[in-house]
Amino acid sequence: MNDFAAAFHIAVALIGRFDVELRAIVYLSLQVSLTASVCAFAIGAPLGTALAVYRFRGRGVVVVLANTLLGLPPVVVGLMVYLLLSRSGPLGSLGLLFTPTAMTIAQTVLATPIVVALVHRVAVGLWRAYGDSLLISGASRLRAIRPLMRMGREGLLTAFLAAFGRAIAEVGAIIIVGGNIRGYTRSMTTTIALETSRGDLSLALALGIILLAISMAVSAASLYFGRSLADR
What we know:
This protein is mostly helical.
């Protein structure tokens, strides 16, 4: 108990002075996760909306696949990206393995199905309510995607924040493709896992507190902006 109390006090001190190593880890985690979330949103939001607008053979299979991939094991994604970026892989010549870019790719793969599934659920209801009106007004299905996304901005915001939450909390995939290299690819989650295994709880606790604060901030932002958009 005394050891835990001492580690907690050290963790608070690290946060209070925003330790250099702590700051670098937090900044890298936010940079990678935000970039991955933006990429996942840019891919997933139009795709999720298009799945609600277009009718084609195999559409149901694509929707089921997107929802199935919500539970995609992170270590499997990490392995797939590792094989893709390894020296003998098709993209090995780019030298991306064990870099923040590789971590971003892995997080994007994990977060994209979340955006697709959540946006599709919102877009389906909107298309049922306004699809005929949009088509009658002269808009093609392709041109209808943008106004439909504007109408569903609350759902899109929720999807983006969900993608960020998935990315920032990820550990399995990024430790495989990033290598957890100190000062280069060490994120909050991988550092927590490493320092806990070493028995050095102070840094792990400090990062855990920050990660918890970020998660609470994301939830609060989702609730606040969701209500604000709903009231408009």
